[in-house]
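Quick one, probably user error.
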């Protein structure tokens, strides 16, 4: 229910900003689709993580021998969940933020500060994406000890997460959304 109210408020703000209605709706529709897909994927990853760790504890304390692959799966899943989760929570203002300065300034200065914030996010995403691609490429020939899969798989989480983060911010801006600084208090 709260998510539907948020979507309606976002759509109303998008059209008030003067963004083209067709482009704005399309951008928001894609952002919502990507966000829902990421949320489902993150839920499945969390379930796999919990099952893997449960099996590790069960193996260690009940069977007497912990399987080696469970710890590796858990570490890889945590890396992927962190990077995909960063993109999934961007539109709703789910990132940690200190909004005292942004909320204390007039709206014209607030818009400028939020634009600087967006530039910093895009710069960070670019650096993470570039570094993630380099790390994945450097480690592509190395296999993980337990699963014996290419280490490019866990390292690619950084690059893919960065691309998704930049994409979600771009779609939100194209749709007329300004990701809030504090999810408890809207910026408008």
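Nope, works fine. Designed sequence:
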């Amino acid at each position: 229910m709260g998510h539907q109210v948020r979507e309606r408020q976002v759509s109303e703000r998008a059209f008030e900003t003067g963004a083209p209605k067709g482009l704005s709706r399309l951008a928001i529709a894609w952002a919502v689709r990507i966000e829902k897909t990421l949320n489902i994927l993150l839920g499945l990853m969390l379930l796999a993580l919990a099952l893997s760790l449960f099996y590790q504890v069960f193996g260690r304390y009940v069977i007497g021998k912990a399987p080696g692959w469970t710890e590796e799966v858990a570490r890889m899943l945590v890396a992927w969940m962190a990077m995909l989760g960063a993109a999934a929570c961007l539109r709703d203002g789910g990132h940690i933020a200190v909004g005292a300065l942004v909320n204390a300034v007039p709206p014209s200065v607030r818009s400028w500060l939020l634009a600087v914030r967006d530039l910093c996010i895009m710069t960070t995403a670019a650096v993470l994406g570039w570094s993630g691609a380099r790390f994945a490429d450097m480690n592509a020939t190395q296999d993980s000890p337990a699963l014996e899969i290419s280490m490019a798989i866990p390292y690619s989480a950084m690059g893919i997460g960065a691309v998704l983060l930049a994409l979600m911010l771009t779609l939100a801006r194209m749709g007329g959304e300004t990701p809030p600084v504090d999810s408890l208090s809207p910026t408008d």
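The first helix runs from residue 2 to 16.
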